[in-house]
């Protein structure tokens, strides 16, 4: 199998894996979908083995990514710690994804989020992110006046 075909197969299989629910898709289904998209017969043994290797590699990469992730005591993904008591987390609340920047406190051996902080919807986060250059510019201007 030449390098071009290998590359096309790997790109297609990885895209299918990224877009799919891994709990519901089998390796055979992935191979059939890729075969249809690429207009290739991937049922031959060397293709089956190659697709299996791609799937296993993808699964291992995802497991390693999850091992690196850190969660708070409420199950929210910790993106970063701004200080000992402040952190940025991603959480789900009433079906919405929120970016939460808040202070934490200890109670009964657990670190819990306090009411001091802010939670932004994805739209609000996008608006803030878009305006970061203007915020940085204003900070520089204020610092130069000091």
Describe this entry's structure for a reader.
This protein has 146 residues and is of the alpha+beta class. The chain folds into 2 domains: 3-68; 70-145, Transcriptional Coactivator Pc4, Chain A (Transcriptional Co-activator pc4, Chain A, Roll). It has helices at 3-19, 27-38, 45-68, 122-130, 132-145, and strands at 70-71, 77-81, 86-93, 96-107, 110-121. It has a 5-stranded antiparallel β-sheet with strand order 1-2-3-4-5.
Q: Descriptors for this entry?
A:
5 strands, alpha+beta, five-stranded antiparallel sheet, 146 residues, single chain, 2 domains, Transcriptional Co-activator pc4, Chain A, 27% strand
Summarize the structure.
Helix content is 52%, strand content 27%. With 146 residues, the protein is an alpha+beta fold.
